[in-house]
Amino acid sequence: MKGGHPIFKIETGLGKVVTMLLSTLRLSSIMDTPGFEVIEGIRLLPGGATLLTEERVLVVADLHLGCEAALEYEGLSIPRVQTRKIGQYLDKVIRDVRPDRMVVAGDLKHNFSRNLAQEWQDIERFIEGLNDSVALEVVKGNHDNYLGIILREFRIPYGKETSVSGIRILHGHSGQLDGRTTIIGHIHPSLRLRDSVGASFKDHCYLFDEERRVLVLPALSLVSYGTDVVSQPSSDGMSPLLSGRGLADFVPIAFSGDRQLSFPKVGLLRDMRRTGS
Ligand SMILES: [Fe+2]
To answer: What is the reported pLDDT for 21?
Structure first.
């Protein structure tokens, strides 16, 4: 029928209004979102979580839940606070940015050889704490041996890597770059900053290589605090994905509160450290 059915016309008009309203709401929600858009579609948030804005997927890495129990086996006793603290941080991020899904880019748990009792408890507490607020997917890290047994109970999708809006997400302990924009964890990057009187402070940072379009996420773990990528050039060899060029072309990105801090590339920071400039 020429011009289509009248009811279809009304629905199409309403659909357009609803679509415009939704895009306006989504745009204002993205504009209100804290953090820094490192490349179109990837927004780094203070504290270590990253939002993939097209599908509103949160990506985090290296939680190392149960790390405290593993340290106790080595004779070091520390308070078991990681799961609660990480849960509180993610609760706030989920409230602030309202993601549809969350991907853990590896090392959800810590112990290599088996699932410790604390790991079972902490992972169950972590999943239950999400309270169905987001769908969870986990990518396997080098610490995640036997994690599949726990995740199967909760029917959580679990694999070697995943893709969101064409962005590849994997842990980074194995594999090669394939030309896609890629997000990894594994390196636990951090920076040690010194002031003019010699006081120093070490904090997590993101690393981003604009040319290769590779983003390295900081660890969310409070215990496994990270590799200073400037004073430890051995960090170049931590991921086979970065073989050859290492981390020299990466720019560290950190936050002071909600404020983004900019730095020169890691290679230049290492030169400055060597020459004392
Ligand atoms: Fe890790």
So the answer is: 43
